[in-house]
Each structure stands twice: as structure tokens, then as C-alpha cells.
Amino acid sequence: MGRMKTAVMAGVATCVLCATAQAGGVLHYPGELYAAGMQCLTGNGAEQNPYRAMQMFEKAAARGSAEAEKAIGLMYLRGIGVEEDAGEGARWLRQAAEHGDIEAQVIYADLCLNGTGVDLDITQAYMWYKVVVTRGEHKAVDSLRWVSREMSEDDIRKAEEMAREQLEYR
Predict the structure, then answer these.
(1) DSSP H or E stretch at residue 28
(2) CA torsion through residues 164, 30, 104, 95, sign
(3) pLDDT at 43 > cutoff 80
(4) Which of 67, 68, 125, 145 makes the best surface tag, with the fewest CB within 10 Å?
């Protein structure tokens, strides 16, 4: 019963966040803004409104939310609430990746590998896959192996140095 009550209360809190945002109320914290944006985006507990979601995500991103940066990037990549723009999507996803969002790091590496929204850059792809794997996430191991087969030893050394710098920066 305790878990159910907690889940219901969390849902009510999230609904209140989106309702507050939609009524012009002030939300201050990045997590609140991101949660309100997700509600507006999905319509879960609130009226679905991708334009309002984008506004919430932009406010959260301005306050340092890597999750919000990732959400904005994905909205641009998919053309949700905005005109589809792979370049703008890639820019936001890179920002989220640089701010430590692991999922954004994998997605941005994929964009680099495929040349979607950015110039095709196998060294950048390797670097981001390496960052993810070094952080203990195994979802990028196969991609890292595949990319390494397409690179020279010098390029791998360069990408690994870039990955070390990114990890130190974080």
C-alpha cells in the first residue's frame, strides 16, 4: 500500500507541476520544469501540448538540465512541436552529452557515425562510445568495437585522448 500511495502522490505532484506551468505559474527548479515538460509532451496527466513542452524544456535547459537538452534535441530530430532540424537536434544532443547525459552521449555518437545533423566523424563517434563504456554503461560496447575496426591506430589514440579529456571535464 505504501508504494502505491507513493506512486499516486508522485503522479499527482507531476500533474500539479504541469497544471501550474500551463496556468502561468512559476516553476523554478530544472527537475520541476523537465517533469512539467514531459507531462506536456506525453499528455500523461495533462493536456498534450508539445509547444508548451518545448518551453518547459528550454527553461530547464537554461538552468542546467542535461535531460531537458536531450529532450529538445530529440524533438528537433523528430520534428515534434518544431520543424524537423537534424542540425539543431544534434547541437542540443551534443550539449546534453557534454553535460553528462549517457543516453545523449550514445545518440550523439550515432549521429556522428551516420553523419546525421553533423559531419560524419568516426573519431567523434568512437570518443563518445568510449566515454559511455568507461562510465560503466555496456550499451555502447558493440558500437565501440565496430567503430574501432574502421579506424587507424593513430585515430583510436586520438579519440581515446579526447574521451579522457571529456571524462576529466565531467
Answers:
(1) none
(2) negative
(3) yes
(4) 145
**Do 99 and 69 meet the contact criterion of CB atoms below 8 Å apart?**
yes
Find the mean pLDDT for residues 64-91. 98
For residue 17, name the pLDDT band (cuts at 50, 70, 90): low
According to the model, what pLDDT value does residue 6 have? 34
Nearest to 128 by CA among 82, 153, 95, 79: 95
Angle, alpha carbons 21-45-1 (nearest 5°): 120
pLDDT of 13 reads 41
Write down the residue that cell numbers 514531459 correspond to: 38
* Dist CA 56 CA 113 (whole Å): 30
Number of H helices, E strands in the chain: 9, 0
